[in-house]
Amino acid sequence: MNFNKYTFLIVIVFLGLFSCEDELDIVPITEKASNNFYSNEQELESAVTGVYAQLQNGGLYGLDLIGVGEISAEDSFEEIAANDGGRFGQLDDFSTNAGNDLVGDIWRESFKGIQRANTVLNRITDIEYEDSSLKTNRIGEMKFIRALLYFNLVRLYGDVPLVTTETESPFDFFGQGRTAMAEVYTQIETDLNDAIQDLPVAKASGKPARGAAQALLGDVQLTQGNFSSALTNLEAVVNSAEYALAGTTSEIFGVANEGNSEILFEVQFASGFNVDGQLEGSPAGSQFRPSGTTANAKGHNLPTQAFIDSFEAGDTRLSDYVAVDPGANPFYFSTKYEVSATGADDGGSDHLIIRYSDVILKYAEALNENSQTAEAIIQLNAIRSRAGLAATTATTQAEVRAAIRQERRFEFIGEGHRWFDLKRYGTAVAVMNAFFGSTGSIVTIDANNLVLPIPQSQLDTDSSITQNPGY
Fold first, then answer.
1. What's the pLDDT score for residue 275?
2. Cα 39–chain centre separation
3. How crowded is the C-beta side of 47, counted as CA atoms within 13 Å?
4. How far apart are CA 389 and CA 378, in angstroms?
5. What does the DSSP assignment read for 347-376?
6. Widest CA span of the chain, in angstroms?
7. Angstrom distance (rounded) from CA 284 to CA 346
8. How far is it, in rounded angstroms, from Cα 181 to Cα 131?
9. 226 domain-assigned
């Protein structure tokens, strides 16, 4: 284990100094933070670590954000719909309601992370750092994380309250209501443009560098249909020479491959560590396995048989990214998240939020949408070649668009991308209704199903927060 990961994990003990588990369920989530505590660099650095630690939360990249990004789409499913009170099972048939714990957990833990980032940004100006460049980097990191969390929120819930200042009183934002998506996106882009200026070029384990901010900004711009600007930012990452595809698809995931050249930004986990009763491992390895196969296996986020059958012959990702339980009712599962020998829900696999293959395929998407189809094919073929496949036969813009979209399915199975991809393409309703029709299901969806309901607890707390249509 490297020193960065150790310090990242262990400083969670400090969170008790400025967190409270009994917050009012409002937006933004408030936390107790003494004005006298953040008086020097060391104390503020503990707050920075608390921001990173928040990303490990089960409501975020520990479990829920991964699951909602996959189970909502057609390529993975929930083995037992009633598991965990149906919190993931409801995603499968679009029956999610405002009382679903997952809906509330993602909302609450996201705003906790935003509040922690806002606190650092508010306090850091008055703190003297021995190394002024580190202080600048920290500002960039906090803006990157705030942008990331808001990007998730706006894609999952639509309009959300926008808060960019530290909340010192739980009553400060009552009555604010929800901010229009366009305004939230403007703030996300502002934060990321600032982060690009503040972050270092060279990447560091567990920390975003300039390339991560450029890649995330490119994703934000693709999502809004701004293909020209997206191309500029994604091309900057490719031309930076800071990142490279891992040599084979077997060299990307798992504890043994942590810190490889493909990773732009990851949330770090480590098994075998227990700090004040809090495991520092990830639950994804256990809970994304078929029931009965390992301790606390829940059958969440299992690839469908139809998806498995759609792999091309010779695609190394079929054996490197998934495996099958050989039991009486065999189910496939993702091997991107390892099960730990130390026990359930304590996996050591980092969650890779942004990796270079994601950048390459989004770069190909931006190239193609900017009528640079020949160049897009080159990028697409780099991913196919790494997976042991021949060059694509697609030639026209429409064919290449379809080929890129298909390639993303195989490359990112289980990682939490598919639902967001379908929404970005504008095909989510059509794809899911076709999927349900092919399985004989009576489920149909419409545009209202493209966002989650606002948590009922939030509605009960602040009458200015309105529910999404259809819920």
1. 74
2. 33
3. 30
4. 14
5. B-PPEEEEEHHHHHHHHHHHHHHTT-HHHH
6. 64
7. 9
8. 37
9. no
**Number of structural domains in the chain:** 1
Q: How far is CA 362 from CA 151, 221, 225, 352, in A?
A: 17, 11, 12, 16
Domain assignment of residue 9, yes or no = yes
What is the C-alpha separation between 353 and 265, in angstroms, rounded? 6
Please choose, from the candidates 321, 337, 305, 301, the residue with its C-alpha nearest in 3D space to the C-alpha of residue 386: 321
Task: Estimate to the nearest angstrom the gap between the alpha carbon of 386 and the chain centroid.
Answer: 24
- Say what the pLDDT of residue 170 is: 64
Residue ranges making up the domain that contains 91: 1-195
Outline where 279-316 has alpha helix (H).
Answer: 284-287, 305-309
CA distance linking residue 351 with residue 263, whole number of Å: 10
At 329 the pLDDT is: 74
Residue 77 lies in a domain: yes
- The pLDDT of residue 168 is 77
What sign for the dihedral angle of Cα 287, 289, 292, 295?
negative
Looking at every residue in the chain, the average pLDDT score rounds to 92
Quick one: residue 207, left, alpha or beta (phi over 0 = left, psi -120 to 50 = alpha)?
Answer: beta
Give yes or no for a contact between 367 and 373, defined as CB atoms under 8 angstroms apart.
yes
The CA angle 376-380-381, to the nearest 5 degrees, is 115
pTM over 0.85: yes
pLDDT of residue 29: 54
Six-digit token string for 417:
């991308």
CB-based contacts of 327-332 (< 8 A; 24+ apart in sequence): 327/290, 327/292, 327/293, 329/290, 331/79, 331/290, 331/299, 331/302, 332/302, 332/303, 332/305, 332/308
For residue 155 the two structure tokens come to 């894609």
Element (H, E) at 303: strand 302-303
The three-class DSSP label of residue 125 is coil
Asked whether residue 178 is assigned to any structural domain, the reply reads yes
Backbone angles phi, psi at 370, to 5 degrees: -100, 20
> Whole-angstrom distance between the N-terminal and C-terminal Cα of the chain?
46
Give the whole-angstrom CA distance, residue 116 versus residue 18.
9
Q: Count Cβ atoms below 10 Å from residue 143 Cβ, excluding itself.
A: 28
- Residues of the chain with pLDDT below 50 are 1-26, 30, 32-34
pLDDT of res. 27: 53
What DSSP element (H or E) covers 324? strand 322-324
Question: Contact at 8 Å (CB) between 109 and 447?
Answer: no
CA–CA gap between residue 218 and residue 359 (Å, rounded) = 9
Which CATH number do you get for residue 28? 1.25.40.390
Do residues 123 and 116 lie in contact, with contact meaning Cβ atoms separated by under 8 Å? Answer: no
Cis previous bond, 283, omega within 30: no
